[in-house]
Amino acid sequence: MESPEIRDFPGLDARLAEVRSGIADACRAAARDPEDVTLIVVTKFHPAALVAALAALGVRDVGENRHQEAQAKAEELEHLGLDWHFIGQLQTKKARQAARYASAIHSIDRERLVAALADVDREIDAFVQINLTDDPGRGGVSPDGIEALAEQVLAAPGLRLRGVMSVAPLEEEPARAFERLAGYSERVRALDPAASAISAGMTHDYREAIAHGATHLRIGSAITGKRPEHR
Q1: How far apart are CA 206 and CA 76, in angstroms?
Q2: Which of 9, 69, 3 is nearest to 225 (CA)?
């Protein structure tokens, strides 16, 4: 019998099932085990009630990219025991607050942010975000700074280096971008073989990300539907 939470969001179960099926198909095509891929459902601008409905459907990993919104949802839904992934640009002054609810931060892109998180009282999974463009205004560390930032994460007691994260540029074929990211992942694994995770792939390009080794997918609208109006 369908739970009340799910009934409030028609089509949510079907969209989630379709994406899960697509992930399984992409994994088979890449000769990979779907169990090795974590689906993070991004719920930006959606209410906490939708997250509760996702939890009723078996979702355990939720992604948010705005601290204030993430904090409020995490507090309201603390009883569900979800893993919250912070995937947006994080202000240094908000870092320690985010560390109270986030089990993982996918946007570690500068040394000051690492320093702010270095001695938090719970271990946080850390992904080094890499800028795959030539635009320094985009989020992420430049490729020539990967090792220095990764080494700082490795030295931070409160952080566990999981691997790398990036967003494929819109102006480039996703497969080419993710191929480069896989190469950057190898550089991080040379520093710590355990840091093998790759956070990449969204609604429009998760199949290409899986083909190039992505272990964590950040998928929103294909599952949640259209975002509600916001201010």
Answers
A1: 30
A2: 9
Query: Residues 142, 136: contact at Cβ < 8 Å?
Result: yes
Q: How does pLDDT run across 56-90, given as a tens digit for each residue?
A: 999 999 999 999 999 999 999 999 999 999 999 99
118's enclosing H/E stretch is none
Which residues in the chain show pLDDT less than 50?
A: 1, 231
Rounded CA separation 98/104 (Å): 10
Query: Terminus-to-terminus CA distance in the chain, angstroms?
Result: 36
Give dist(CA 158, CA 174) in Å, integer: 33
Closest alpha carbon to 170 in 135, 146, 143, 120: 135
By CB atoms closer than 10 A (0-12, 13-18, 19+), residue 154 is middle
Q: What is the CA radius of gyration of the chain?
A: 17
CA–CA distance, 207 with 23 (Å, rounded to integer): 7
Q: Is the dihedral of CA 15, 30, 129, 174 positive or negative?
A: negative
Q: Count CB atoms within 10 A of the CB of residue 80.
A: 16
- For residue 7, what pLDDT is reported? 87
Task: Name every residue whose Cβ is closer than 8 Å to that of residue 7 and which is 6 or more positions away in sequence.
Answer: none
74: left (phi over 0), alpha (psi -120 to 50) or beta: alpha
pTM value? 0.95
- Mean pLDDT over the full length of the chain: 95
For 92, the token pair is: 């240094």
3-state helix, strand, coil in the chain (%, to 5): 45, 20, 40
